[in-house]
Amino acid sequence: MIGTGPFKIVHYSNQLLILARFADYFRERALLDRIELYVAPKLVGAKKMYDVAQIQADHATHAKRFEEKGSSYMIYNLNRSGPLQDKWLRLAMNTAIDRNKMLRELCGDRYSPSNSFIPNNSERRLKAVGDAKRIEECLGRSVYQGERLKLYYFNHQPVAVDAAWIKNALARFGVCLEPIPWPMDQFYNDQFVENADIILGGEVLEENVELGLIHLFKDQSGLIRRMLDPKRLARVDQFMDLFIQAGTAKMRQEAFEQLERYLNSEQLLIYLYHSRKEITFNAALSGIRLNAFGWADFSKLWIKPSSSAEKLIN
């Protein structure tokens, strides 16, 4: 692998990635000489902790909290025949999932109910949910006859909790879900999409939100392009073409809002909630800057001088 960044890869395996300072980097010298990143799938969703083990004893920790740009959501497999082709059933399910109640009961990193991939848009467009009379009316007009629907989710604890809560919320109205865990490393397995009626997913947009939205809706390996049928994808692409071709940020915003209005009107997915994360740092670390994914910019991190640090250096 060839690049021009402040670090180079010196070791890579399924369990460990080691980066070392790249001496020929064309800008300033990286403040860290070495970074070790361990793969720990069982810790997905756990809080991140940046520590300096050798000087841990006489330093406290401090935390930074940030709100992710993006949303968790459920998306229907509209390439499969069955009751989910019926918009009335999709509308009933959307109405039955009370996001505010979900957040009150589950807490954790879930901080705001969602009606958009962009948190600011959710605040303007949230609608009432949980209307039992409306849910029963929609189910009565649907073709649903109690069929068991397979809800696939990625196999780590916070998502499993979401899946169980959603199953119970829909069961109150006679909609039967079967939650099925799926390993994240099998995301690209065709059986994942072929067998699922619904997938519980999430999207965190990158620093450049507009590029993140293009990736979300145009990436052939992403859930949206794998779950929507060709006719609806063609409609999505019309909106995204307007978004990409727009000459100003305001025009791109308007194009994306048109796209999300289409997604909502057709009930193609169910937005759930926005998340916030808390990252903990050893107080000896300074220069902390977090990116859109909650990772610190390692090239800016440095260790404050202290008695322990001096001992470490010596």
From TrEMBL:
Residues forming coiled coils: none
Gene3D superfamilies: Dipeptide-binding Protein, Domain 3, Periplasmic binding protein-like II
Pfam families, alphabetized: SBP_bac_5
Residues annotated as transmembrane: none
Domain Solute-binding protein family: 1-124
SUPFAM superfamilies to which the protein is assigned, alphabetical: Periplasmic binding protein-like II
Protein name per its UniProtKB record: Solute-binding protein family 5 domain-containing protein
Organism encoding this protein: Sporolactobacillus terrae
